[in-house]
Amino acid sequence: MIEDRRVDGNAIGGLLADWFGREMTGEIGCCGECGVVNPLGAVLVYLDAPGQVIRCPACSSVLMVVTTIESTVRMSFEALRWIQSPR
Amino acid sequence: MTYVTRGFRRKREESGPPDRVPPGQYLTSDFPVLSAGPTPRISLDEWSLIVSDRDGDAKSWSWSEFLDLPRETVTVDIHCVTKWSKLDTVWEGVSVDTLLTDLGEPGSHVLVRSYGGYTTNLPTADVTGGRAWVAFGYGGQALAPEHGGPARLLVPHLYFWKSAKWVNALEFGDFDRRGFWESYGYHNYGDPWLEQRYSGD
Amino acid sequence: MAGAEILGRLTWQLAEVVEVIDENSRARTIVLHCPEWRGHLAGQHIDIRLTAEDGYQAQRSYSIANAPHAERVAITVELVDEGEVSPFLIEELRVGDRFEIRGPIGGYFVWEPAVGGPLQLIGGGSGVVPLIAMMRARAETDDHVQVRYLSSARSFEDILYRAELKRLAEENDGVSVVHTLTRSHPEGWDGPTRRVDRDMLEGHAWSAQLRPLCFVCGPTGFVESVASILVDLGHEPRRIMTERFGPSGG
């Protein structure tokens, strides 16, 4: 089943820490489509052919897309409206 | 600086005959399932396929109307940009040429829309002349949802991300609009024999 | 959740295998020594990178199994049939071999005793690995956080850390351990023998009224089913942390 193939933000913890220079899975992200907030560790990650599609666990909107083309990693931002630190 | 780990090697993969398997691909015996999002759950009562031409004139079919159209069974090779290829896959579907009958001039390109929001784009020449189908059967059975059922586009001569799952609409016109993966840096055309994986290839 | 900041960027570090422990015929714990390791929290994972002689690289993530430690990192790897990395780690890798790791990674699916409880740990298959790290972290402190641990395994032989968990439950009033077996069970088995369902959680898990912190880990289908039942039972979604491992290995 396709649904079995989805994982969550924990699986991109290394990628996010590499980009932001600090641990990110505990940070809170807001979906710009539905407004629901969740720790980045709880977002859904679809491992698709050409890249990873990161979706809101509440409404399934695309939050971000990560593509690795040859040696270039691109993180594209879509519905991810903001990220904040819990305290 | 990387460290070579004693005894580790890549999994051996079958490369297959070079006239059938494009460069950089390997053969798979299963049918990997890859997805950009949750499986859309479309009831056959609600399913429809809409095809529009360059002037915006459209035809649509319900599921039972679609199944009444002339159908073909084809055996084709398919190639995924993640490097797996599968030979002699058998599909049942309706040729896109059939869907364009009774519509006006299509124009140069088509934007394909899927239930769930996925899109991809192709030149009209690559989905006509017997090169593409809207397929509802695979391997002699109804196309499973994880593989794009009720129906998906099938364009075997291009990388398989162009064969959009859960197809809902074919919008023909004179403008080429980039679809989902094309807008994230994947090749606009996607010929596996020229290894056109990324834009710039 | 407790902040788990890493200072500075994640870099690949070379780790050396100092011990291998065959947990059963399909799983092995690999203990690594990593001199620049700055410690970790229970629930975190490492990424590993293997490079072949021809330059080919494979990368995977594995949950850390040991309690927080200054220099040692242990992972438990389960065999994936037709896999590329797990057969190498389980069948070929020896003490003295080295490979690259980076981490620790994780700031959401983490627990430390100072955070408190009560704690509800639910793991399917190899999803118990980060949970055993939490049990081990708890065991090392004088804190009396109460914990209920529920694991789902295919057969008796597949229950990871069984003897250790039995001992922890026997020695501690505050620890309860239940295993459910889904495919086969030995004669005389008196535990549950089905997939985790609502009845089982009503019977064995903390009630929602006690507001436990719940950690659910394992194959995606397992995690989503269990998390959904916990919400139905009244647990606050914010107090349920999940880690999906993807499709079950088969």
Write the layout of secondary structure elements.
The complex is a heterotrimer of chains A (87), B (201) and C (250).
Chain A: E1 6-8, H1 13-20, E2 28-31, E3 37-39, E4 44-47, E5 51-55, E6 62-69, E7 72-77, E8 80-84
Antiparallel strand pairs in A: 1-4, 2-3, 2-8, 4-5, 5-6, 6-7
Chain B: E1 26-27, E2 48-52, E3 58-62, H1 63-67, E4 72-79, E5 84-95, H2 96-100, E6 109-114, E7 119-123, E8 133-138, E9 141-142, E10 152-154, E11 167-173
Parallel strand pairs in B: 1-5, 2-11
Antiparallel strand pairs in B: 2-3, 4-5, 5-8, 6-7, 6-11, 8-9, 8-10
Chain C: E1 13-24, E2 27-33, E3 45-51, E4 57-63, E5 72-78, H1 86-92, E6 98-105, E7 119-124, H2 129-139, E8 147-153, H3 162-171, E9 175-181, H4 198-204, E10 213-218, H5 220-232, E11 240-244
Parallel strand pairs in C: 7-8, 7-10, 8-9, 10-11
Antiparallel strand pairs in C: 1-2, 1-6, 2-5, 3-4, 3-6
General description of the model:
- Chain A has 87 residues and is mainly beta.
- Chain A has one domain (2-80).
- Helix content of chain A is 9%, strand content 44%.
- Chain A has one helix at 13-20; strands at residues 6-8, 28-31, 37-39, 44-47, 51-55, 62-69, 72-77, 80-84.
- In chain A, the strands form two sheets. Chain A has a five-stranded antiparallel β-sheet with strand order 1-4-5-6-7, with no helix packed on it. Chain A has a three-stranded antiparallel β-sheet with strand order 3-2-8, with no helix packed on it.
- Chain B has 201 residues and is mainly beta.
- Chain B has helices at residues 63-67, 96-100; strands at 26-27, 48-52, 58-62, 72-79, 84-95, 109-114, 119-123, 133-138, 141-142, 152-154, 167-173.
- In chain B, the strands form two sheets. In chain B, strands 1, 4, 5, 8, 9 and 10 form a six-stranded mixed β-sheet that branches. In chain B, strands 3-2-11-6-7 form a five-stranded mixed β-sheet.
- In chain B, strand 6 (109-114) and strand 7 (119-123) form a beta hairpin.
- Chain B is globular and about 65 Å long.
- The mean pLDDT of chain B is 95.
- Chain C folds into two domains: 2-105, Translation factors (Elongation Factor Tu (Ef-tu), domain 3, Beta Barrel); 113-245, Rossmann fold (3-Layer(aba) Sandwich), CATH 3.40.50.80.
- In chain C, 19% of the residues lie in helices and 32% in strands.
- A six-stranded antiparallel β-sheet of chain C has the order 4-3-6-1-2-5. Chain C has a five-stranded parallel β-sheet with strand order 9-8-7-10-11, sandwiched between helices.
- In chain C, strand 3 and strand 4 form a beta hairpin.
- Chain C is globular and about 55 Å long.
- Chains in contact: A-B, A-C, B-C.
- Chain A binds chain C through residues 1, 3-11, 13-14, 17-18, 21-27, 39-42, 47, 86-87, and chain C through 1, 3-10, 45, 47, 61, 102-103, 105-110, 219-221, 224, 241-248.
